[in-house]
Amino acid sequence: MCGQTEYVLTRAQERGKARPDTTQADIVNLIWSNGRMMDATSTTVPEPPMTDQ
User: Fold this and answer.
1) Measuring CA to CA, which residue among 47, 52, 1 is closest to residue 24?
2) Which pTM does this prediction carry?
3) Position 46 confidence tier, pLDDT thresholds 50, 70, 90
């Protein structure tokens, strides 16, 4: 996975789609924290959207 992350990050930085100071550690931290958030909220059911009806 590290090789793929590095490849995608490098391409994004070369095209100006990712900040030049973004590192692989930032990506790993983002993926890890997103997983933790999903674990923490997986039993929470969202409320239905409010409507004017």
Assistant:
1) 1
2) 0.61
3) confident
